[in-house]
Amino acid sequence: MARLVVPIRGSGIQKMGFLGLISSFQTQPISCHHSSQRFVRNFNSNLSHFTEFTDRRRSGLQHLLRGVRQSKARLTCSVATQPAPNIEESKMDTPKEIFLKDYKMPDYYFDSVDLDFLLGEEKTIVSSKITVLPRIEGISCPLTLDGPGLKLISIKVDGKLLKEDYLLDSRHLTLPSPPTTAFTLEIVTEIYPQDNTSLEGLYKSSGNFCTQCEAEGFRRITFYQDRPDIMAKYTCRIEADKTLYPVLLSNGNLMEKGDLEGGKHYALWEDPFKKPCYLFALVAGQLESRDDTFVTRSGREVLLRIWTPAQDLPKTAHAMYSLKAAMKWDEEVFGLEYDLDLFNIVAVPDFNMGAMENKSLNIFNSKLVLASPETASDADYAAILGVIGHEYFHNWTGNRVTCRDWFQLSLKEGLTVFRDQEFSSDMGSRPVKRIADVSKLRAYQFPQDASPMAHPVRPHSYIKMDNFYTGWSSVSLFLSLEFFLYIYFFFVFYNIIYKMSTDS
Fold first, then answer.
1. Dihedral of CA 105/216/231/335: which sign?
2. Are 380 and 369 a contacting pair, CB within 8 Å?
3. How far is CA 103 from the centre of its chain?
4. The one catalytic residue among 186, 332, 391, 413
5. Residue 405 confidence (pLDDT)
6. Is the Cβ–Cβ distance between 202 and 196 less than 8 Å?
7. What's the pLDDT score for residue 496?
8. Where does the Peptidase M1 membrane alanine aminopeptidase domain start and stop, copy by copy (predicted)?
9. 4 CA to centre of own chain
10. Distances (CA, A) of 214 to 67, 82, 236, 254, 347
């Protein structure tokens, strides 16, 4: 994700805050004196260049597309939808192909989720208490929860221990006849993060506990409806050995912490905003933080912390500058103010996904956070600026306003890539940034589009969602004006529906 831009301090180019509609708070008007005229002139100029560029792209790929059409039968099914050969699995264990056409609203929603983690060296005990609301009261439908490989300790419905009134297989826990009105579901599971080599869900590496739940990792922590349209308010209590894990982090605001008997301690976190489970995060380990503050335009003071191993702390100065610049830019350009009292970033060398936008607890690979003048290039500094901005911008475009299902992955990623590209352009050189982005498309995206890995922006089906995280899900969408408009109106419409549902 190297960006050949040197970030410089400046107010940036003022734009019209047309995404202010997706904010749930009353935004302040943005000064637009002469902005609209300049925006139109720039837009028309960029559109002309964009048309010339797409014509050249179309012409240059015609000979490749001819070969692709001749192999159409082979390309209609992407690699992600083909089962691995020579593997005999029982019908129960075979992953199920998910089709877009089969989407239906959930029969049950989750209103609140209280999680309790007892972190241990041999095993971790996870207790969840979920408030379940049937979509249609008076009708009982089976409630199926995802949970591959989990060890079930106990399950209760409204405080009553279930012994036989459920079905359990290697991937799911099903309640055949749950109550027809709101009820409380309590589940205790046992997991083994130190043996979790998938690096999905909760795993342990280099002595630290860490999570990665996008796209479908939360189901490896506890039994749950692991889908983006299940949005709930979360609390998370973490208990662990204080010497081994002095830092205990999760989403939201820190409500309380304290010491316990036996050399243990705990921390209780609360996220007051509803989120899908893929945005849940937990980090526990021996880390130190660089602290700073940011005052929002409404006057709230937000505590900012970047956590790293102690030896890396001096290399986080540019990351903190980038975070504060992103927060200020999002307020000035898009009218979006940060909505919590605390924002944490964790940078560890063995995080497997590069960077992740978990609500208020972004987790990064160290390469995308650490920089020092002795070893980092201008491209490294520019990459950190862009990635820090990208994950922060997800706080609204992806977190507070999110996807209905994973077929809409490109909506949140495409729009947020557009936002981070605009941010980097305003902080540095817009022409240089644009050249770098197009060069990346030509080097990586175009070959994929002409290969067996080509697939629609929104595929018709998938088996393994992780295989969908390609260039189509992010940077290439910036070149599609029509798709960008589709993204924009989707988020506006979704936010209107979401606010209506919460108000009611």
1. negative
2. no
3. 21
4. 391
5. 96
6. yes
7. 58
8. 320-470
9. 25
10. 35, 22, 18, 23, 17
